[in-house]
Design a protein that fits this description.
Strand order of the largest sheet of chain B: 6-7-8-3-9-10
Order of helices and strands of chain A: HHHHHHHHHHHHH
Radius of gyration of chain A: 21 Å
Strand content of chain A: under 5%
Largest interface: A-B, 25 and 36 residues
Number of helices of chain B: 10
Structural class of chain B: alpha/beta
Oligomer: heterodimer
Low-confidence stretches of chain B: none
Structural class of chain A: mainly alpha
Order of helices and strands of chain B: EEEHEEHEHHHHEHEHEEHH
Mean pLDDT of chain A: 90
Number of helices of chain A: 13
Largest sheet of chain B: 6 strands, mixed
Number of domains of chain A: 1
Chain lengths: 327, 257
Amino acid sequence: MKKRKGFHLILFAVGLALCCAVMNFGLIQTSKILIIQYVGIYIIFVLGINLVNGYLGIFSLAHAGIMAVGGYTASLASMHIFTSPWMFPLSLLTGGMASVLVGLCVAVPSFNVRGDYLAIITLGFSLIVKSILQNLEVVGGPRGLRPIPKYTNLIWVYLCVVLAIVMVNRFVKSKYGRNMMAIREDQIASELVSVDVRNAKSVAFSVSAFFIGISGALICHLLSYTNPNSYGYSAIIDGLVMVYLGGVGSITGSIIGALIWQILVQSLRTIGTWRWIIGGCILVVIMIFQPNGIFGNRELSIAGIKRAFAAIRNRLAKGAAGKKDGQ
Amino acid sequence: MSAPVASFDNVSMHFGGLKAIDGLSFSVAKGKIVGIIGPNGAGKTTVFNVLSGVYTPTAGEIRFNGQLINALRPHVITGRGVARTFQNIRLFERQSVLDNLRAACCAHIKYGILDVMLSTGRMHREEREIETGCMDILSFLGLADKAGVKAGALSYGDQRRVEIARALACKPELLLLDEPAAGMNPAEMDLLNELIVRVRDHYTLTILLVEHQMRLVMGICDEILAINFGRKMAMGVPAEIRSNEQVLEAYLGKKVR
């Protein structure tokens, strides 16, 4: 146990050193660094969505609205209150906390409403947030906010991603995670084995909203502007695609989903609208062969890799033996 | 006689015009195994549903250890010490047997969200405690080797036992078993008989069970409550019920004179 902790710390330090090196010595093109940052930020976003849509098993579409609240609040905080760069974590926290508050509001209808109906309610929530922002002149109306100080850099993204992965991992392995998965499997049975369903859902929605809000804040401080149109249908669909591509109920899945989709979308920018067609095709294929996503309800582990290799070796050995028999 | 663990006082549960339970009164004494019998649709499962908080009764008072529990939500009632199993098995199928039990320990876990995020010693200690507690229950029921198996992959009989194990993980005083012998053959039923008595003695429980199988009911129950159309027909020791005319009539039909 101790040994593993040390290993993780070393891994973390190496990652941090790598980030510093990349930033200071220009090892990688700026455009590539931008893509890496996108991937990192969307990993946090997808981890947040996965808590509700994957582990809790509720089909929510509120993530765009929650991201907007987090992004706008954090941006306003750094523009007006926390104006120096070292106060950036405070703006991030402010954004995250604002998201938690709206996340709790979204959790309330989920106590009684289920399935498609809740999807419609949460979709409504996202659209309401968007049109409020569009009509609120204080935050720039349809033009949005600018200039937001450009605080996000590779190191901040790296720190946030590591923190998010560690926190979500601890969360889903605790009693809260067990409660979420119990509710996903059978809500009535879980109530009758003493799971407080309302409390569990509120906690899940707030933790989820916190990470979605942080990702929104990071993106705003990366692009140094934001406007209501960034939080429309495309943001909703982007989030869902990454969750269901990578895998529901899986941390590895969230990382893989964000990685594949962001690299695809960002690197195919040159071919314009065609990238949506390619992306869509990939999604269709994955849904047919792996309906729960690439890592649906599984995690990548060293033991798992060993088992997979053993299975492949077995199959190969059997295949060879079969051939011999045939001859 | 000591104070009853659970008591129904003139309880009614109406669904629109349907009177699933109609003015039912009875009480369960501590440490007893009480069976509830009655023809299909007599309201047996509804008794469990109002007692465990799935429904709030239309009228009447339900008490557990002297406290009124009518309007409480299910998880609160379970937390106070009423646990149940289901007629049609309702395990968390995609989770391991051990995780099924751990989820049921929820009411007895004290650590909060900060303990989780900081991964404190308190959290690890409590997690270890509930894990040993759950493993104890599993080995008592002979399921220790199944702890890591997904609940949905178990055989029917094992799933039934895991349901009982999960209910025990809630640390109940009163255990409600809803048709525990459904789909079992006579040999399995005898094993179940023995198991229920063993569980009662080991965990000092009071057990209330709904059952159709007379072999089970007559074999282990200290008392039997017979209901029909949501009303009490008779309550007494098995021998009394067996010779009660009203009960015979409800099950076998009226004698032709």
